[in-house]
Amino acid sequence: MYGLCQRYYPIFLTVLLVLASYNIFYSLGTFPISSWDEARHGVSAYEMLKKGNFLVNTYLNQIDYWNLKPPLSFWANMAGYKIAGYNTLGLRLFSAISAILTIIFVAVFVNLKHGKLASLISTLTLATCTQFLTDHSARTGDADALFVFFFTTAILSLLLFKEKPIFLYMSGFAFALAFLTKSWHAGNIAAIICLYLLLTGSYKKLTYINWILLFTFMFAPIFAWACIRYQYDGMEFFNNMIAYDLLKRSSNAIEGHIGGYSYYFLTLWNYFSFWLLLLIGLVLLYPFRELSISKLKAEKATYYLGLCLWIIVPILFFTFAKTKIRWYILPVYPTLSVIIGALSSKILLNGKTATRAALLFSILVVSLFHEWEIQTYLGNPPSKLHIRLIQNVQKIDDLKGYSLFVHNPKSPLKWTQNMVLASKLYGDLLIENGDVSDFLKRENALLLLRKGHDSEDIINSNQLTIITSNKWGYIVRKNM
């Protein structure tokens, strides 16, 4: 097995990266827009790009004091729009790229530390990790995939810095980029760096110059952004960042995001169940009893400490925070894949024949199960017909810049965030509040009508023209 992996490693790794790319990019631009963070980020990136203001995120052209994130994730969305166009592919492009880069970085790192067989297993684990690919991450326009990439880069660099000191500064710079992506979440990285340097005694070997350079790479980019942002609205944005995004989220379960101390363990079980069972089996099978203290030192105990901190710190941090959201746990998946690859390769290369065969079979079954979950997700996209109806406007000429009103005869239909983003991306439409009478008074206006008992009456009595329709409803305008 070792010789096979050595000889054909580039081919096997390419196959796994193709699998990961398929899981991430398949129908990426056709899945409907999520109504929460993805849509909010997409609207802000669109408006920032249109206005040419790359520092102040807005929503419906007002400064957004709800989405209190620094601008880096918005820049990623904007870059996607410029490359792929104003559409859902552009919205998600750099999330997908970030996820692929995360997988590649893990593969390269594990190959360096544990060998080619371990690298392939770690790559397979992350390439079939359901939550990492499908939930608020690789396949969405949220900030999380980019954040996980910087998080992973920071910790991998930290684990390499004893070999080359420059990696410590790279770790600090990745922390800065992670903070500029997802704000206080990056505190986990800073905590891991501090604990790692403290518990391993590495801090004693750092000179004043080392400390100055580390703090410069960690905080200079953040300070530069803060100084420039301050010119726009003073301390208001920063006060909200601290009061709401840090203190309130930590001390209160805001916006209904509740959960107990087992919340993130249950999340891991729901999304990573069979890989988690495999990991538990690997821990039980691995001959830890054969490791003496001296041998543990020879195998670089500091490295294993770093891996443990990578898992423990985020889990503890978010477990004790009152607001519980399942995607907060995303940064631990790369390190879980590293550990699974490392332990599996040790057993496959040194274990008994029956154990090796059982483990190889288990890895195959587990990866197929999670791949089946991913394919089920890819094959059953949410319908969201009202979003698809708005997207149809792109196919019709001369509607750019029109006002769009909404009428729902069955229940009040508010402007959800994904409706706002779809209207902007696919028609550059102006979002309007009002009823049918307001629509009729406005020139160059469209009306989104849900099918119901009075929709046909509204169309016929006002002699409106249907420009597009589907099972959900119609988009109409006045006769020209």
TrEMBL record:
Residues 69-225 form the Glycosyltransferase RgtA/B/C/D-like domain. It comes from the Bacteria. The chain crosses the membrane at residues 7-26, 93-112, 143-161, 173-199, 211-232, 268-289, 301-321, 327-349. The keyword 4Fe-4S does not apply. It is found in: Cell membrane. It is a multi-pass membrane protein. One of its GO terms (molecular function) is pentosyltransferase activity. This is Undecaprenyl phosphate-alpha-4-amino-4-deoxy-L-arabinose arabinosyl transferase. The gene is arnT_2. Pfam families: PMT_2. It comes from Neobacillus massiliamazoniensis. The keyword Ribosomal protein does not apply.
